[in-house]
Amino acid sequence: MFSFFVLVAVDYEYFKPAERAILTLSSPDYMRDNLQALKDLTISAIPVRASPYHPQTQPRILLRTRGQRGRSEAARRGVLVGCGPSAGVTNDGRTVVFGGLSSRSSSESWLEDLLANFQIARSDKGDPQIVRLPL
Asked: From CA 26, how far away is CA 4, in angstroms rounded?
């Protein structure tokens, strides 16, 4: 029996792709058959290695990451580290991470000005939804 994948997520380490994808099956009962089916798979002449996924640590449940306030609080607590499936961010592919920016600025307004030509998500109050993560 072959099961369809329910979810495919890129695995990240500190917001950088780790060259792995995590496929979530509709049932763990199909794991063995799916691993067998993926055994000889190649993509662009690169062999695919498939194995059960066992995270190094249990992913933290982010209770306050909904909305701008929740994401900001999670960033201050050090919960948003960008590791695991989809970098631990639920966003349906609408989040962008910038790295290497100056840490001297105390405000995100300069980044908002830099991205003025793009549609930045805004809160109900009209504030841009930009979160700065501590180093």
From this structure: 7
Give the separation between CA 99 and CA 116, rounded to whole angstroms. 18
Residue 131 lies in a domain: yes
Structure tokens at 126: 């009209």
Q: What is the DSSP string of 77-128?
A: HT-----EEGGG--STT------S--S--S-SHHHHHHTTTS---B-TTS-B
Q: Are 116 and 59 in contact (CB under 8 A)?
A: no
Give the total residue count for the chain. Answer: 135
Q: Are residues 40 and 75 in the same domain?
A: no
Q: Which of 37, 97, 89, 31 is nearest to 60 (CA)?
A: 89
**73 and 42 co-located in one domain:** no
Output the tens digit of pLDDT for each of the chain's 135 residues: 455 667 788 888 888 888 888 888 888 888 888 888 888 889 899 888 888 877 665 444 444 456 667 777 777 777 777 888 878 776 666 777 777 777 676 666 777 787 888 888 777 788 777 777 766
Domain count within the chain: 2
